Amino acid sequence: MSETPINQDDFDYAFESTKIIREPARFIDTFGLTRFEFLMASELMDQVGQVRVRAGVIEAQKPMIIKPEAYSDVEFDGFSDDAQQEASKLLDWMKQNGHSLAFLRYGFEFKKVETREEIVHEPIENVIGKLEEEADQSGSPSLAVLETVDDTWEVGLLKFTIQMINRSRDVNISDYKRNGLL
């Protein structure tokens, strides 16, 4: 993200504008490390036909200790401070609006690693199509394709992460119950 702090309007716009074109076929593992790969496209601001393609890995890791409920949280390592603060606000909103996040007291840590980028001189539709082809050809069940806003691209990763938490929730809760943890 940019060096200037992200304001709420920019965060909201980036969160709403981010499209998860292709979700991974797998869920977040309840007890262990899950690595999700991502391919992300974003149009450069004020530059027609130029797209930044980012590729990287997000790790979802189960902490080694169970946290007291008062200290339950999701940690976002490798994200900017602004992105971490906004993610925390978003999770609080989800809790306040009836989303069942009970399993979060067991904590998750998300870590952004191995990010690289390049500029492609093509319309974004073409770039997205090529990224989808690349994802299909890879056969990786852990690969996601995203489209987001360039200067607040970490917000797109946060949206993806939150979506993966929600998608994995029922499986994770079932695993916790089966192991007597909930």
Helix and strand arrangement:
Layout (H helix, E strand, L loop, with lengths): L7 H10 L1 E4 L10 E11 L7 E11 L12 E4 L3 H16 L11 E13 L3 H15 L4 E5 L5 H26 L4
Parallel strand pairs: 2-6, 4-5
Antiparallel strand pairs: 1-6, 2-3, 3-5
Helix pairs in contact: 1-4, 2-4
Short account of what is shown:
The chain has 182 residues and is α/β, with parallel strands linked by helices.
Features:
37% helix; 182 residues; single chain; six-stranded mixed beta sheet; alpha/beta
Description:
The protein is an alpha/beta fold and 182 residues long. The chain has one domain. The chain is 37% helix and 26% strand. The protein has 4 helices and 6 strands; from the N terminus they run αββββαβαβα. The chain has a 6-stranded mixed beta sheet with strand order 1-6-2-3-5-4, with helices on both faces. The longest helix is centred in the last third of the chain and has 26 residues, at 153-178. The protein is globular, with a radius of gyration of 17 Å. The model is unreliable at 63-72 and 102-107 (pLDDT under 50).
